[in-house]
Structures are given as C-alpha cells and as structure tokens.
C-alpha cells in the first residue's frame, strides 16, 4: 500500500557516501550473499520444513510403504532389486541372533530412501505444474482443455490437508523477464503522459540502454535468480524499506479500520481484552501452522513466507540501514496510555490469559492515576523521526533504559489505549471518519511505536484500528490477520450484556509492570525535535474516507467485468477531472505465485484508459461508443494485471536492473530517469480474503472497512478501496494539505461522479446518473463536478452503535 512512496524515495538514499561504500562490494559477492541469506532462511525454517516437507505425502504413507516391502520380503519377493541385501551388508554384524533385525533395518532404510525420492519427485512435479500461468491469461469465465488438465494434475499432486507452509518447497522461483519486453512495456506505459519530445528522448535513452548495458545486467540478474530464492525481494526489502532514512509515519506505515457502522462494546478495556486475545489466538494458529495457505481458484497456492514475521517483530533503526529483529516467541505486549508505558503479560502458568483477565489488566492501566515522567510522554515520537536521528538516540537509550526498551521492542506487538473517542458519528459523519483515519495513520505523533510490526489502537469509545509497519510484509498478510481478529472477537468471543468480556476476572494476577525510562537531559531536546517534526508531518496530511453505497461488487459482476478494473478506470476518469491531465498511476498487485514474492506495479494509466476518459468528457461521443472504449480499457488493464502477477511486470525488473547497475558502477541515464519518476496517483485494493468469517447477508455491517496510506508525492494522492459486501465500496484518500494542487475531498467527489458515470453506460445503471445530475448545474462533464457526495452518511434501520 504505502510502498509506492518508498519505491520513489529509495533513489536519493543510494547517492549518499555511506550507500556508495556498500556498493563497492563485487557484484558476484553480493549475489553470493543473497543466496546465502536465502539458504539461512531455509535452515531457520528447518522445523517447519520437517513438519511440512513430507507434504503431499504423510507419515502413514511411509508406514504403508514399509509394510508393503516387509510383506513382499515375507513372500520371498525383492522389490528393491537387491538393494536391501547390499544395505544389510553395510550394517554392523551383531551376530546371528540379530539377523532378522538387520533385515528390518535394511527394509526401513530402503523404505525411507524410496519415500524421500517419492516426496522429492512430487515436489519437482508440483513445482513444474505451478510454473504454468496460462490459466491467468485466459478470458474470464473461459477455460481451455489445457488448463482443465493442469487443474486436475495440480489436484492430484497437491495432496490433502496442507498446512500453512506446506507448499513452500514446491513454489517456482520468480522469473526474470526479457529485458527487451520490459523496456517495450515501459515505453508503452509512459507514452500517454509524455509529450512527443520527451517520449522521443526517453526512447533514445532506452535504445542506448539496450545496446550498452542491458545484456550484462540481465546476465547477472539471471545468475542471482538461479542462486537466491527470489531475484528481487531481498533487494526490495533492503533498498526500498530498510535503507530509507525518512520517517516511518505516513511515509511507510498504513492503517486498517474497525467495522464502520458497528462497535460491539463501548468499554475500552473490554474491546482491548478481546482483540488482544483474538490476535494471540491467531499467533497460536500461526505457530501450529493451522492457518490454511491461500489458494487461488481453490487450487493455486500463494507464498506464505511473509506470515513468519507478523508477531514479535521490530524494525531496529541503524546507519546506513535498519534491520528487522524477529523473536521466536514473546509472552507480553507493550501498552501505552496517557504518556506511560506498561508491560502486560499475556500468559499464566495454565496458558494464554482469558479475554476477561486481559480486560482486567487493561482496566488497571486505565485506572492508574500516576502521571507520566518528564519527556516520557513524548518518547515514542523518536520512532517517527528520521531514521539516522533515531538510530543515534537509540544507542544512548539502550544504555540508559535497556530493560524498558527491550520490553517494548521484544513485545508481541504494541497496544495504544487512546484517551479520545473516534469513529463514525451521526452528527458529522464526514469529519468523524476523516479524523478516525488520520488518528490511525499518524495519531498525535507520539502515541504509536512505529517500529513495531503493528500497533493495536483502542479508542476510549471502544473503536479499534491498526497501524502497520510495511517492511516486514504487505497488506494482504496483515489484512488476513485483521479479518480473523474482528470476526473472532465479535462473533466467537463475544461480550456480556453489560459490554464486558465473558468470564470472570482473576484477582491473583500481578499488576501490569510500569516501565521506567532514565532519560538524560541531552535526550530531552532530541525528543522535542522529533515531536515537532512528527506534528508537522501529521498536520500536513489530509485523510478522507467515504463509503460509496450506490452500487458495489454485485452490480459490477452483473456487467461481466472485473471489479478492480472497473474501479481503476473510474479512478482514471476522476483524477483527470480533478487535475486536468493524466499521470503515472501506481497500482499494487502481488507476486506471491512465486517463492518469497512480494509485489509488482500495474501501470493503470494506459493509452486505452486515456481514450476512454477523453470520450467520457466529449459530448459528441455516445454512450455505446464510450462503453466500447471502456471495455477496451478494462481488457488492457486485465492484461497488465495478469502479466504483473505472473512475473512479467515492468517495475520490479527495472528496479533490480538499477540496483545491479549500481553494484557494477555502470551509469545508465535511462535507469536514472525511470527511477526519478513521480507517481501522482498511488492506488491499492484491499481484498477480503476470508469471506466465510462474515455473514454479509444477515449482518451486512459487520465487515471490515479497509484501510489507507499516505500520499506518494507532495502533489499526489494515495487511494485505497475495499468492497464491503456486495453493495458498498469504501474509499480511503489522502493528500498533503500543503499542496495547492490536491484536495482529497474534491477527488472523493470526482470518484463518486466517475463511478456513477461509468455505471450509467450500462442499462442497469441508467437511473444512477439521473438521480445525481439533478443536484447541480452541468459543469461540462457527464455529471456535475460536485455530485451528491455522501461522505459517509448512511440511512439504515439496522441498529448501530456509533
């Protein structure tokens, strides 16, 4: 989600003297180290591999094979063709009385070798099958005979009852695309946003790159792809995230919201107790690998590697780069309330604390009248400071308050008990939702520990939210966890009639441990500087959230269109009306079809999209003509999306080529220009991955309302969206208040108008446009430029608790 900001910002960090020192290492050494890191990760997962390495076979299959060999031996048959006799000869001679034992051991060794060879063969066969991506490129609703055969073979070789990491050894590696194809696709993507003169210049640079540097860089990338698990992901993590020197707040973190219209309980401590318990239940299932791997089409597995670092993880600041610290286990959470830090244990001798016991601990913190120590209240603002500054201060802090710092950084996650209410209100739905989003994204600059993998935020009225650090994983991973948390704490754990967690308190529990920070005087000034910078950054961000309820996914499906492509084309129309020009558009998609894959960019502003947008504001164009152009734009977007998912995207390949050029000290004006581009529109869809957890028909309000991220550029927008059930789409928009060119509320109005305009091209959507046009004068577009923007209002008879 927020990765686009980091992807643009990583280039300046490579020009510093410190970064150049890192690039002085020979490129072959860097490729070797990349592979070494991959193998170290494989070794660290040894226990998981032991548990799941037998997949798709099972221990019973070994026992069956051993029994069959023994039976054949009893019947004087030798299925080993003499190998077992040779194994017996290699075994020690323990005397004649142990002759039968030697036979059994030889049979067991032969059965184990045969069983291991069978598993290896199954893994190789499955990896070859999973390398086929023809199913992605086929039209929606159509399936060729080849794909049907492929699905049948995948089903045969996939086994039964997979665990979370069962498929990791069978996933193919991400391929390195053809450099000629990548450059061609890049030039095609920038053509709509460049003038003829600029495009000709860019094309000349591209041809020079292909002639002089491309083949050498491509060869080294191919070598790395063969040796390391993924040719791009480790560099993406290091150079895009860990080397960034900017503040994590707004620039790197993103947020996830609670239910939009429902608050299960107004009791803050109770909501915190159930939510923390649900999160720890998710961690327990994660440790036991009871979370099912994500399967596309119910058959094609996605990489699960990113799940490993959800909990017990902290991004540690350093110079010239940060590093990610992950602990195997942690039995406490760190809690912040009114400027004070606490350590709250999550387990007793009998196991995980109950929700009621956790509520009791959080209530004790809320009732604690002790004040914050001087400057302790604003200490966490250091985690929102530029990373070099925080790295230097942390060294001193680790010396002065090592125990307190370890309690925070070694926690399972961070919990912020906010002293203010947030969420949707009836009195001012638009302003209240915007303030809710801003509080989750930035807070007050000193009440979130931005280094933690995620911070659970519980507001005084019981509303929840997450602030997530981006380097360790991407949004679908935290989204999967968040869906489980909301569904579990609300539907399974539940609340009593008085709003408290079910069960009884445990008076024998010790009080939460107050953390004490011994802060030297010289640190006070640094904390004040960090707080000032955090407040400036927070105050410059404008967030706007609105649920679009005129139609949703069900309407788009009836139009036989991809819901994501539908929204992306509407966003192109809205942005053009907002700014009067086209721009490079960043849409994030996943590459988890491959081992340790992360994300790729879909460049949504295509020539076909621009033709459609121009036609929509051309009064001489008829609706059928616009609809034809719209379908062409959607088809093009789908082709780009599928290519990106199958490892044939543009941006990650160009990124890896650029990093390789730096290691080789090859100057490429073309690659320099590519990575100096500004993404004025960054977009992301938040998928609902576990539909079975929510009953959208009987409880339509109990659906997560998604989340958002900060703008990518100073004069750009960040837009995310989520399909809430079948009839609502919630948008999260952000921009910088200091920009005179952007306005998130204005763009929200254009998005609603664009959606209604596009829907009106279809027969079922004709009534939607007319109802909105009546509210204002025509501004030259197909609908009024300031349409009937709901901004979060809702008329519903469903009982709600705001």
From TrEMBL:
Residues of the active site are 470 (proton acceptor)
Q: Where is this region: Disordered?
A: 777-802
Where, per UniProt, does this protein localize? Cell projection, Axon; Cell projection, Dendrite; Endoplasmic reticulum membrane
Question: Which GO BP terms apply?
Answer: carnitine metabolic process; fatty acid beta-oxidation; regulation of postsynaptic membrane neurotransmitter receptor levels
Annotated GO molecular function terms are: carnitine O-palmitoyltransferase activity; palmitoyl-(protein) hydrolase activity
| Catalyzed reaction equations | S-hexadecanoyl-L-cysteinyl-[protein] + H2O = L-cysteinyl-[protein] + hexadecanoate + H(+)
Give the record's GO CC terms.
Answer: AMPA glutamate receptor complex; axon; dendrite; endoplasmic reticulum membrane; glutamatergic synapse; mitochondrion; postsynapse
The source's domain of life comes to Eukaryota
Q: What is the membrane topology here?
A: Multi-pass membrane protein
Q: Please list the residue ranges annotated as the Carnitine O-palmitoyltransferase N-terminal domain.
A: 1-47
For this UniProt record, give its keywords in alphabetical order, as a comma-separated list.
Acyltransferase, Cell projection, Endoplasmic reticulum, Fatty acid metabolism, Hydrolase, Lipid metabolism, Membrane, Transferase, Transmembrane, Transmembrane helix
User: Which portions of the chain have biased composition (kind: Polar residues)?
Assistant: 792-802
Q: Where are the transmembrane segments?
A: 50-75, 104-126
**Mostly located where?**
other
Q: Which residues form the Choline/carnitine acyltransferase domain?
A: 175-752
**Which EC number(s) are documented for this chain?**
3.1.2.22
Q: What family classification does the UniProt entry report for this protein? A: Belongs to the carnitine/choline acetyltransferase family.
Role this protein plays: Palmitoyl thioesterase specifically expressed in the endoplasmic reticulum of neurons. Modulates the trafficking of the glutamate receptor, AMPAR, to plasma membrane through depalmitoylation of GRIA1. Also regulates AMPR trafficking through the regulation of SACM1L phosphatidylinositol-3-phosphatase activity by interaction in a malonyl-CoA dependent manner. Binds malonyl-CoA and couples malonyl-CoA to ceramide levels, necessary for proper spine maturation and contributing to systemic energy homeostasis and appetite control.
Q: What is this protein called?
A: Palmitoyl thioesterase CPT1C
Source organism per entry reads: Rhinolophus ferrumequinum
């Amino acid at each position: 989600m927020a990765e686009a900001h980091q992807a643009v910002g990583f280039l300046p960090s490579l020009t510093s003297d410190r970064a150049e020192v890192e690039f002085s290492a020979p490129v072959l050494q860097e490729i070797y180290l990349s592979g070494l890191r991959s193998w170290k990760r494989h070794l660290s997962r040894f226990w998981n591999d032991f548990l799941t390495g037998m997949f798709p076979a099972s221990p019973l299959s070994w026992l069956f094979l051993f029994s069959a060999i023994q039976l054949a031996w009893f019947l004087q048959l030798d299925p080993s063709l003499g190998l077992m006799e040779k194994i017996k000869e290699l075994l020690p001679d323990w005397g004649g009385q142990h002759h039968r034992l030697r036979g059994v051991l030889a049979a067991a060794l032969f059965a184990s070798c045969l069983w291991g060879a069978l598993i290896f063969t199954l893994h190789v066969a499955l990896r070859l099958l999973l390398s086929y991506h023809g199913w992605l490129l086929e039209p929606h609703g159509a399936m060729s005979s080849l794909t049907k055969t492929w699905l049948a073979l995948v089903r045969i070789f996939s086994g039964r009852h997979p665990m979370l990491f069962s498929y990791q050894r069978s996933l193919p590696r991400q391929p390195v695309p053809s450099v000629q194809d990548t450059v061609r696709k890049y030039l095609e993507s920038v053509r709509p946003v460049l003038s003829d003169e600029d495009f000709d210049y860019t094309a000349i640079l591209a041809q020079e790159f292909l002639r002089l540097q491309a083949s050498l860089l491509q060869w080294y990338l191919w070598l790395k792809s063969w040796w390391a698990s993924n040719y791009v992901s480790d560099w993406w993590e290091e150079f895009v995230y860990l080397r960034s020197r900017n503040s994590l707040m707004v620039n790197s973190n993103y947020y996830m919201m609670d239910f939009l219209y429902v608050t299960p309980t107004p009791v803050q401590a109770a909501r915190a107790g159930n939510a923390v318990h649900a999160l720890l239940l998710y961690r327990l299932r994660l440790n036991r690998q009871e979370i099912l791997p994500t399967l596309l089409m119910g058959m094609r597995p996605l990489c699960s590697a990113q799940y490993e670092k959800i909990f017990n993880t902290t991004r540690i600041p350093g110079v010239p780069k940060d590093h990610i610290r992950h602990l195997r286990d942690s039995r406490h959470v760190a809690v912040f309330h009114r400027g004070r830090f606490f350590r709250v244990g999550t387990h007793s001798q009998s196991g995980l604390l109950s929700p009621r016991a956790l509520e009791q601990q959080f209530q004790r913190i809320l009732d604690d009248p002790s004040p914050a120590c001087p400057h302790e209240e604003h200490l966490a603002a250091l985690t929102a400071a530029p990373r070099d500054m925080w790295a230097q201060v942390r060294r001193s802090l680790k010396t002065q308050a090592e125990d307190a710092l370890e309690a925070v950084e070694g926690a399972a996650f961070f919990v912020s008990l906010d002293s203010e209410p947030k969420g949707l209100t009836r009195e001012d739905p638009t302003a209240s939702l915007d303030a809710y989003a801003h509080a989750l994204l930035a807070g007050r600059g000193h009440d979130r520990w931005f280094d933690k993998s995620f911070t659970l935020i519980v507001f005084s009225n019981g509303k929840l939210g997450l602030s997530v650090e981006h380097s360790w994983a991407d949004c679908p991973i935290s989204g999967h966890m968040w869906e489980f948390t909301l569904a579990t704490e609300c539907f399974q754990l539940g609340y009593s009639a008085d709003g408290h967690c079910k069960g009884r308190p445990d008076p024998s529990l010790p009080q939460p441990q107050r953390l004490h920070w011994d802060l030297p005087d010289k640190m006070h000034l640094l904390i004040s500087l960090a707080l000032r910078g955090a407040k400036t950054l927070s105050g410059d961000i404008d967030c706007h959230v609105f649920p679009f309820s005129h139609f949703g996914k069900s309407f788009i499906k009836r139009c036989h269109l991809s819901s994501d492509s539908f929204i992306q084309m509407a966003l192109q129309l809205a942005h053009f009306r907002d700014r009067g020009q086209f721009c490079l558009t960043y849409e994030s998609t996943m590459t988890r079809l491959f081992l340790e894959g992360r994300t790729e960019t879909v460049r949504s502003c295509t020539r076909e999209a621009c033709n459609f947008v121009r036609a929509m504001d051309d009064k001489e164009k008829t609706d059928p003509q616009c609809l034809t152009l719209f379908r062409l734009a959607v088809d093009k977007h789908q082709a780009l999306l599928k290519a990106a998912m199958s490892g044939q995207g543009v941006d990650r390949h160009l990124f890896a080529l650029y990093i390789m050029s730096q290691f080789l000290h090859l100057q490429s004006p073309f690659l320099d220009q590519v990575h100096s581009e500004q993404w004025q529109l960054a977009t992301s869809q938040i998928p609902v991955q576990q539909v079975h957890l929510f009953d959208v028909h009987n409880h339509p309000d109990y659906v997560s309302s998604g989340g958002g991220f900060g703008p990518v550029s100073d004069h750009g927008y960040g837009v995310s969206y989520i399909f809430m059930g079948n009839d609502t789409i919630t948008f999260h928009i952000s921009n910088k208040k200091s920009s005179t060119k952007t306005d998130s509320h204005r763009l929200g109005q254009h998005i609603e108008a664009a959606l209604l305009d596009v829907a009106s091209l279809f027969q079922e959507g004709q009534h939607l446009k007319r109802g909105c046009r009546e509210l204002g004068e025509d501004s030259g577009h197909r609908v009024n430029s300031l349409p009937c923007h709901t901004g979060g209002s809702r008329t519903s008879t469903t009982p709600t608790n705001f």
